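Posting this for the archive.
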Amino acid sequence: MSSFANSFGPHAPEETYVEHGHEERLFDTGEVRLNYVVAGEATNPPLLLVPGQTESWWGYAQAIPTLAERFHVHAVDLRGQGRSSRTPGRYTLDLMGNDLVRFVDGVIGRSTYVSGLSSGGVLAAWLSAYAKPGQVLAAHYEDPPLFSSELVPTVGQGIRQAIGPVFELFSRYLGDQWSVGDWDGLVTAMGSELPAPIRFIGAAFASGAEPTQNLKEYDPEWGRAFWTGAVGQACPHDRMLAAVKVPVLFTHHFRAIDEPSGWLLGASSDLQAAKVREIVSATGSPIEYVSLPTMGHSFHGQDPAGFCDTLSSWLDALTT
């Protein structure tokens, strides 16, 4: 059995991290140290990039050079991911959102645009609702699991009828802060313990002889926080969306419903996306919805040029 117990994280940098072609910096919020990179001229409009679950800042590596031609880009590792601090027992939307509020104040220092993928897209929604007045100019939700990452959502499937069982296996076989590290057990479980409709997702995460680089940089307690609902217990998505105060771009990627089981394949269903648009529209904030049903979960990873064009065109339309 391959054991990687306690092998990865900030306490074991030589085993965990590799270089990704940008100078990495640390910002101390008082509770956590957030790792980040910067690209582009400081005179350009600022743009904050927020990665998804199991993704570090370098998930944006192919998009950053193009974005840096017109933005002052800041790409950050959330707590529990990349080189940022691990915070046992303290993974919630409100804590992570406030990390980013402090980051905008302490590093960017002026009003910024925000784009976040997946769980980072939910945090982009959090910032569009709860950031300090004037901190956020507009927010891009890149294929966010709004409602579908909740334990008991307002509408549609919840986390336990979507990707949640994958996160539960991360938690069980890898353990908080990689305290278990049973990689072979995880690979086997992804093929045998997951519901049939989502086994393809499990295989994408865990199929080789050792963990992929992005998982080495990930605290599996994130998975437990989502599986148990602790991550959003004090932050219902419907209430958060009803507080949105800035223009929103929502790009909605591949999604389907497995008819026999009702299982959600993808980040959010059409029903959930419609509810997001309904709630945000009622605030008076404009929301542009772009349906990309053939796009994988990470637009910026699969088609960085298309991602940059879509984001830039939307922002241009806002400022003309």
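The two ends are 59 Å apart (CA to CA). The first strand starts at residue 25 and ends at 28.
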